[in-house]
């Protein structure tokens, strides 16, 4: 199940990149989809990672993990934007993977001991998030003067890196105790929440100002529905 889920979720990055390079959607529609995906992912990380960690350990573990994850993301994001330069080769790759590694690490950790449908909401939300995020990133790179083939290969390699993060998160942490595992889950969740606040929702608001809030709410409803189906 691990490899199937990872293949589907990471494959969405490649499909999104192809959509961004060779296809085109109105800015408003793209912003709506980004907000929809962000809302779904926000609810999923709270319900599938943070709340189970609180239930199995304590609120302290959750607070520690979420706070640390958000702080590390903010620091890395600052270094990329202000020090390394998001348009440079290494900085560009770091900027692309920074959002995705916490999501895929969280997915791999969530799969530990999970049944076939228990991670459906999280995996589905990451998939929804990956499609418009990759499309927007790939389009910006292509419009910046890079060849379409090079941009596509960059996203293929990025998908491979993020797949490795999910697999490592699952295999390397399988024997870890519930307390440390809860902190790791919440660390990943905190990083995802920080990325939504600084990258996803601002983009959605810029591109679809009047409907971004509605799309975010619809995404949360979609994630809740997926979670209910998985649980039921």
Give an overview of the whole structure:
- The protein has 232 residues and is mainly α.
- The protein has one domain.
- Helices cover 85% and strands 0% of the residues.
- The protein contains 8 helices and no strands.
- The chain has helices at residues 2-22, 27-56, 59-84, 89-110, 120-143, 148-171, 178-207, 212-231.
- The model has no long low-confidence stretch (mean pLDDT 80).
What's the assembly state of these chains?
Answer: single chain
The portion of residues assigned to helices is: over 70%
User: Mind summarizing the main beta sheet?
Assistant: none
Query: What portion of residues belong to β-strands?
Result: under 5%
Number of helices, counting only DSSP H or I runs of 4 residues or more: 8
- Shape call: globular
User: What is the average per-residue confidence, as pLDDT, rounded to a whole number?
Assistant: 80
Total count of strands: 0
Query: How many domains make up the coordinates?
Result: 1
Category by helix and strand content: mainly alpha
Distance between the termini: 19 Å
**Radius of gyration computed on alpha carbons:** 17 Å
Order of helices and strands: HHHHHHHH
Low-pLDDT stretches: none
């Amino acid at each position: 199940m691990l490899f199937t889920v990872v293949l589907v979720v990471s494959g969405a990055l490649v499909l999104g990149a192809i959509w961004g390079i060779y296809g085109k959607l109105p800015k408003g529609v793209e912003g709506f989809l980004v907000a929809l995906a962000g809302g779904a992912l926000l609810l999923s990380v709270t319900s599938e990672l943070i709340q189970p960690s609180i239930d199995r350990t304590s609120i302290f573990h959750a607070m520690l993990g979420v706070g640390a994850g958000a702080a590390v993301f903010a620091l890395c994001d600052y270094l990329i934007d202000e020090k390394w330069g998001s348009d440079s080769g290494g900085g560009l790759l770091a900027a692309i993977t920074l959002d995705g590694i916490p999501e895929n690490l969280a997915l791999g950790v969530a799969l530990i001991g999970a049944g076939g449908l228990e991670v459906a909401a999280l995996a589905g939300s990451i998939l929804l998030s990956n499609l418009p995020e990759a499309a927007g990133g790939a389009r910006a790179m292509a419009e910046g003067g890079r060849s379409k083939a090079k941009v596509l290969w960059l996203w293929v390699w990025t998908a491979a890196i993020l797949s490795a993060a999910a697999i490592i998160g699952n295999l390397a942490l399988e024997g870890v105790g519930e307390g440390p595992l809860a902190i790791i889950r919440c660390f990943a969740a905190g990083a995802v929440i920080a990325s939504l606040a600084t990258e996803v929702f601002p983009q959605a608001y810029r591109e679809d100002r009047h409907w971004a809030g509605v799309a975010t709410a619809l995404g949360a409803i979609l994630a809740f529905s997926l979670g209910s189906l998985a649980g039921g």
